[in-house]
Amino acid sequence: MPGYFCLPSWQWLSRNSLANLASLSAEPTAFLMSAMPTPNLSLRAYQAQDLPAIVALFQASVSQLTAQHYDATQRQAWAPATADMPAWQTRLASLELLIAEDGQAIAGFIGFSFDGHIDLLFTAPGFARQGVASALYAAAEQRLQMAGVRELHTEASLVAQAFFARQGFSVQQAQTVTRGAVNLPRMLMRKTLEPR
């Protein structure tokens, strides 16, 4: 399975950088170092200037990494070649976002909210299957758990279903989201977090 994605309901550490990640949470994040895919990977908060790169990564991920589960028409409906940037700005403004970088390249991102919703998780095609999604997910779960969240949920694409299952999520319901006249299957998945 090439990469990991949440199918959004709306249509979507390096040792030197631990200080940056620690500023995103109240506790040390040493466990993330073991999930790092490369020595150069770092996690940071999303910034408004990241929008074009995030949208491009999303489009490339859907286009290149989901063909095993979604046909060309479905991929085009999911990630149109011409993105609605105002809609993206609005969507991202409602989420907590973490970006994984390898040097200057964005390797992936995760978007989540403190109601336990993992809304977006995408890896750049060149970084698929290298631990990027795992590092992003681990950081998000830690933040959510520290905020007192007890249950996580996501609408996982067929590509992401196995990834989330490995993180302890279970399928609650098969769903279909419609984009125009195109149906996209996905799975509603949930996970209960242990109290800290």
Number of strands: 7
CATH class: Alpha Beta
Question: Stretches where pLDDT falls below 50 for ≥5 residues?
Answer: 1-37
What's the number of structural domains?
1
Q: Strand-residue fraction?
A: 25-35%
CATH architecture: 3-Layer(aba) Sandwich
Mean pLDDT: 84
CATH topology assignment: Aminopeptidase
At the fourth level of CATH, the homologous superfamily is Gcn5-related N-acetyltransferase (GNAT)
| Termini Cα gap | 32 Å
Helices and strands, in N-to-C order?
A: HEHHHEEEHEHEE
The computed structural class is alpha+beta
Fraction of residues in helix: 25-40%
Number of helices: 6
Rg, rounded, reads: 16 Å
The main sheet orders its strands as 1-2-3-4-5-7-6
Shape: globular
What's the story with the biggest beta sheet? 7 strands, mixed
Write the layout of secondary structure elements.
Blueprint: H1 18-22, E1 41-45, H2 51-65, H3 72-78, H4 85-93, E2 96-102, E3 105-112, E4 117-123, H5 132-146, E5 151-157, H6 161-166, E6 170-179, E7 182-192
Parallel strand pairs: 4-5
Antiparallel strand pairs: 1-2, 2-3, 3-4, 5-7, 6-7
Overview of this protein structure:
Residues 1-37 have low confidence and may be disordered. The longest helix is centred in the first third of the chain and has 15 residues, at 51-65. The radius of gyration is 16 Å and the shape is globular. The chain is an alpha+beta fold and 196 residues long. Helix 5 (132-146) links the parallel strand 4 and strand 5. It has a single domain (15-192), classed as Gcn5-related N-acetyltransferase (GNAT) (Aminopeptidase, 3-Layer(aba) Sandwich), CATH 3.40.630. It has helices at 18-22, 51-65, 72-78, 85-93, 132-146, 161-166; strands at 41-45, 96-102, 105-112, 117-123, 151-157, 170-179, 182-192.
